[in-house]
Write a structure and sequence with these properties.
346 residues; 7-stranded mixed β-sheet; 6-stranded parallel β-sheet; 26% strand; binds zinc ion
């Protein structure tokens, strides 16, 4: 079969590999869609400390079961499924307390296990053990189902930041994740959602798709000032930074309303992770700063329900569909920020 394999930074190859065989507790799927994201581009360019090459990349996976191991119960060939990306151990202190996103033993599809940029993929027993395989409901395409994983991460972020009824929400970063944040915030009852980006083309493209109440181009306008004006000087109830920008994080603190919540959704470059924080803003305004690290199996199940019920539509966010042999071209499209969501159809 054909696979897209990481061999080292800057060295990702389309090549032939033997079809994988599922172990007794595994499930083998025919990959129908594996979507791309900024993480794939980062891995391609810089590698990742959890990836020992060669490794098949791709972690936003949906497909069809073609074979089940002898010890697998409850799944049959032909079933359409979506696969979690981050696999918690289910056993440790954090997992036992329901904090699966911060499981210290977490492993990932496309990092520790071969991923979805391939014709076939084995879903490891560990995924099944934590209910990480979801049946795709009728009426949901494989392409839409492949967006479940990023939406699950967005859902985790908004639960932690307590996005809810009546909130004014600022989303910084108009990429696919930012678009999902806008849509989910609306589904959770946010009053108004404002979208911010430094790139005006990308901002316009995203805004045409997800229709925020206002956009702010951070390279042309003072964002803190503008959000102040839009909120009659109160500031925003929730600010979500879906961009790898320390400056955006610092601005987020300044534009928060009293009792505001700030989600540092996107991480910062690891050689430059320190920001300036006015602690008195946090103190007097009773601000809450939260992080977000991926998603749990439960978040994936809920995200798929949100897609299926059309509470969070994703079909129109998939702007590019490419075949497996064009995966590197897909990474280029993602890197240039020209697309919302690019999916690979092996
Ligand atoms: Zn991703
Ligand atoms: Zn654990």
């Amino acid at each position: 079969m054909r696979v897209v394999r990481f061999h080292g930074p800057g060295d990702v190859r389309l090549e032939d590999a033997p079809e994988p065989t599922p172990g007794p507790g595994d499930v083998k799927i025919l990959v129908r869609n594996c979507s791309t994201c900024g993480t794939d581009v980062k891995i391609w360019k810089f590698g990742h400390h959890h990836i020992v090459p060669p490794r098949v990349m791709g972690h936003e996976v949906a497909g069809e079961i073609v074979e089940v191991g002898g010890e697998v119960a409850g799944w049959q060939p032909g079933a359409p499924v979506q696969v979690i990306a981050a696999i918690p151990c289910g056993q440790c202190h954090d997992c036992q307390r329901g904090r699966m996103t911060v499981c210290p033993n977490q492993e990932s599809i496309g990092y520790h296990y071969d991923g979805g940029f391939a014709e076939y993929m084995v879903v490891p027993a560990k995924v099944l053990a934590v209910n990480g395989l979801n049946r795709v409901p009728d009426g949901v395409s494989f392409a839409e189902a492949s967006v479940t994983e990023p939406l699950a991460c967005v859902l985790n972020g908004q639960i932690l930041a307590r996005v809810g009824e009546g909130d004014d929400v600022v989303v910084v970063g108009a990429g696919p994740i930012g678009c999902l944040h806008v849509r989910l915030a609306r589904a959770r009852g946010a009053s108004r959602v404002f979208l911010v980006d430094v790139n005006s083309d990308r901002l316009d493209m995203a805004a045409a798709m997800v229709a925020p109440d206002a956009t702010v181009c951070a390279s042309q306008t003072d964002v803190v000032d503008e959000i102040g004006k839009l909120t009659d000087g109160r500031g925003a109830d929730v600010i979500i930074t879906a961009a790898a920008s320390g400056k955006a994080q610092e601005q987020a603190l300044q534009m928060a309303a009293r009792q505001g919540r700030i989600s540092f959704f996107g991480g910062l470059p690891k050689d430059d992770p320190v920001i300036k924080c006015d602690s008195n803003l946090v103190h007097y305004r009773e601000l809450t700063i939260v992080g977000a690290n991926g998603s749990s199996p439960a978040h994936n199940a809920e995200a798929l329900r949100l897609i299926a019920s059309a509470a969070v539509p994703v079909a129109d966010l998939i702007t590019h569909r490419l075949e497996l042999d064009r995966t590197l071209a897909a990474f280029d499209i993602v890197a240039r920020g020209e697309a919302i969501k690019v999916t690979i159809e092996p």
